[in-house]
Amino acid sequence: MTLPTHARPRDVDISLLRSWALPFPSGEGDKEERGHVLVLGGSREMPGAVILAATAALRAGAGKLTIATGRSVAQLVALAIPESRVLGLAETEAGGFAVDAVAALDPLADKISAILIGPGMQDEQATARLVHALLPRLEGGNVKVLLDANAMGALLFAPAGTPGPFRFGTPVLLTPHAGEMAHLTGIAKEEICLAPDRHACDAAERWNAVVTLKGARTVIAAPSGERWQHEGGNVGLGTSGSGDVLAGIIVGLAARGADLAQAAAWGVALHARAGEKLAERLGTLGYLARELPEEIPALLEQAAGDSVDVAARTSGHAGLNSRVER
Q1: What is the pLDDT of residues 9-38, one digit of tens each?
Q2: Closest listed residue to residue 254, CA positions, set 235, 241, 267, 269
Q3: What is the CATH number of domain 32-225+238-315?
Q4: What's the CA gap between 199 and 191, in Å, rounded?
């Protein structure tokens, strides 16, 4: 579905999602049809971030999962997520990944559907070098790329000899909150909060990226000028690890076949609704990021809507007719 450019952003609400159905596997489809996600991240100090993101990707319906993380925590991550293949990568002294990690990841480039880079990664410059070494291998194919957290620093550390400000050759998805956007642009956080639409759109065009500027009101901007907004969720979503879960949901949906903007819109809506569900049951404050992914499968099933015949969906003759409640 191609959405027209609007002066006002499109609301990510029931009506929009109903008209923008997620790809749904056929009744005979296996895990390959639902896509293969690679989550690249984690570190000695933050192995949990990659666990949260990877779990969310599976809960969003991705069929296969590979995690690439620091060698020092690879066994821990493998035990935490037995559904995943886990690769241990060489680490820098500062906790990042050595560039020769590219050799270990290269064979996966032709096998994965989507990649998330960034959760729990340290050493911003080492991460940027790794991102720039990987992008040429991923560009031109069908791999959807999501850069989150530390990996967005690739914008600040362009390869030597890059003329002018860095711009992605193939669009990627970036997921900054206002503080991260301030870091990436040099614009004061307060100014970004006052005009999030303008800054998200400017960045999307300048970087050739789908920019998901997170906040109580989240703005999603595409390089073409298309723009969406979502308001919902609750203050409890502002908790440690919540952004890792959101990134995982989005990359899981992208692996299933959603384009970057669609995966971002659906991911933001599902993440917010998961927070609302937990708040209803546990209270607005105090639920944990690790509890969010457990809500996603039921929300996706609910999103199919009563108007979709279950037998038709099972046989693959109907798409996902969304009714995500707010």
Answers
A1: 999 998 898 899 998 876 666 677 789 999
A2: 267
A3: 3.40.1190.20
A4: 9
